[in-house]
């Protein structure tokens, strides 16, 4: 069975390669224009540019777009410790602390507790002035026997 996570982690040695992989294979990542800026075991950082396409009325980031970006960040951070072959988001809780409109934004994601069947991740989003705007806590379920994909 293909080990996608192993391939991505090997590719992560060159962030340009892993960014291109996700930009070409994940339409949400391509739409949000998220870029991985740091990737190591248990920790990842990302850049999210400001664009009108991800704002709501008032020109602040849309909560759903933030949720999608933090879900991606938490999932990729999970990959850095995942010993299985796939994973899915099991739960994601977000606290919106402040409207975000000063981009580009920085997303910082850390493993809180790695596990055999689940990984707990904390992810934060900061604006260009390093103001904390969002904090999330999520759980990713580790899959050891199948890859989740549309057939």
Structure report:
This protein is α+β, with helices and mostly antiparallel strands. It has a single domain (4-143), classed as Thiol Ester Dehydrase, Chain A, CATH 3.10.129.10. It has helices at 4-11, 15-25, 27-32, 63-79; strands spanning 35-40, 43-48, 86-96, 105-113, 118-126, 132-143. The protein has a six-stranded antiparallel beta sheet. The longest helix has 17 residues, at 63-79.
Quickly list its features.
Thiol Ester Dehydrase, Chain A; 151 residues; 4 helices; 28% helix; alpha+beta; six-stranded antiparallel beta sheet; 6 strands
Find the CATH superfamily: Hotdog Thioesterase
CATH topology: Thiol Ester Dehydrase, Chain A
Order of strands across the main sheet: 1-2-4-5-6-3
Quick one: how many beta strands? 6
Helix and strand composition category = alpha+beta
Rg (CA only): 15 Å
- State the shape: globular
Query: What sequence of helices (H) and strands (E) makes up the elements?
Result: HHHEEHEEEE
* Mean pLDDT figure: 92
Biggest sheet layout:
6 strands, antiparallel
Taking pLDDT < 50 over at least 5 consecutive residues as the criterion, the unreliable ranges are: none
- End-to-end Cα distance, whole Å, is 15 Å
Number of distinct helices: 4
Helix content: 25-40%
CATH architecture name: Roll
How much strand? 35-45%
